[in-house]
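Following up on my earlier thread - several people asked me to post the actual chain instead of describing it. Fair enough. Here it is, all 142 residues.
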Amino acid sequence: MPVLLEPDQKYPIVLEGDIGKDPEPTFFAKAQNMRGQTRIATLVDEWSKPDEGTTVVSLFDAAVELLGDVLTGWKNMIDPVSGQPIEYSVEQLREVLTYNETRQLIRAVMYNTHIDAESKKNFALLRLSETESSAGNAKASA
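Reply from S.P.:
Thanks for posting it. Predicted structure:
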């Protein structure tokens, strides 16, 4: 069944740098249809090739506005100073995300990325294992 025929469908996103943390900071996003994906892709294009007169501030503002429309919340966002949970709000995105994390999150919502963290960890371990194996084979061949 197409995901968009399930009205309250949302999916978790764990940023690459947060995989394996205990607890994993997790964003929740609404699934996007092609129209939503096109809107997000337009912003990604603007980040890659900004129009004359486009400022970094305007791109950040557009990213926060877009994420505000797509994200439904988060969990396990802990203030490092107080140790208290950070309540979700669109404005808090400016406080918890870096430039690179924002781009990663935008790409994740554009593609409706929802692979669970355990699968991502296992995939990363598999890739690491393959890399180490290849390096070992190269040494043995030399």
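Helices lie at 34-48, 56-70, 93-96, 99-110, 117-141. That should answer part of your original question.
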